[in-house]
Amino acid sequence: MTAVDSRRAAAVPVGSRPRRSARQAVAGYIALTKPRIIELLLVTTVPTMLLAEGGIPSLRLVAATLVGGALAAGSANTLNCYLDRDIDQVMHRTERRPLATGLVSPREALVFGLVLGAVSVGWLWLTTGWLPAVLALAAIAFYVGVYTMALKRRTPQNIVWGGAAGCMPVLIGWSAVTGSLAWTPVVLFGVIFFWTPPHYWPLSMRFRDDYAAAGVPMLPVVRGARETSTQILYYTVLLVAVTLLLYPVGRMGALYLAAAVGLGGAFIWRALELRRDLNGRRAIRLFSFSNTYLALLFCAMALDALIHGGS
Length: 311
Fold this sequence. Notes:
There is one protein chain. The protein is an all-alpha fold. It has one domain (27-309): Farnesyl Diphosphate Synthase. Helices cover 79% and strands 0% of the residues. It has 15 helices and no strands. The protein has helices spanning 3-9, 22-32, 35-53, 59-83, 85-90, 98-101, 106-127, 130-151, 158-162, 168-178, 183-206, 208-214, 219-249, 254-276, 280-309. Helix 3 (35-53) runs parallel beside helix 15, helix 10 runs antiparallel to helix 11 and helix 11 runs antiparallel to helix 13. The chain is globular and about 55 Å long. It starts with a helix and ends with a helix.
């Protein structure tokens, strides 16, 4: 028996669960949805809706889209936890998740995830239209079926292609306002797509041993830290190029352009620093900055849309 097998054997036995209060149960279900990831996804939705409207859309529509998007993301994240419960027990970073500790049973998590998904699609269909609902369903199916089940344990490119699911909120937000899609949301999709690898790979560099122990072929495990840092730099440059493409395609103004150039330059600089110094703390700092980068970029986009919408 390998060390990994031993740890899995020592994990929470099937059918057992620690005693829990109602508050602990609620907290466990909320944790399954990964609220921090949901927050980041919603940060991209509202500015996209402002840009689609050319101003401030109906607040009722914004609220309905955010609720539906949060439910859809929560469904995908919960089902991801259900399918990854074995490796979550092995990795130190995830060993306290509700399924890994037994706070929530696999059956409860599966039912919860499926119900959230059904409610999210139905809610979006009734409140925003069929297209946002279909896109939400596609996002859930892609994250669970393509990323979690097909890619994550098979290829070091898992996060590249699997990250496409995280790009869907911009399409959902745009279609909720306009009832259709266009080149601008496609470019926004590209922004999130190329942002995902330099966002997630620094984290996987820091927790390389965790992924290796769990048998997950993240890029740092398969190719090493040096090659990963090089790929981070490449994708960061591509990301900045796509953010600049939004200036003509989305008819953005000087505020957005200045933010895209300034924030992009800071991101590239930090990626270069990581490549020069493959330090775990520096990798975590780059990961944290990537979150700030995305939030500030989309805030600048929202302000730009408001300025132009009011002119």
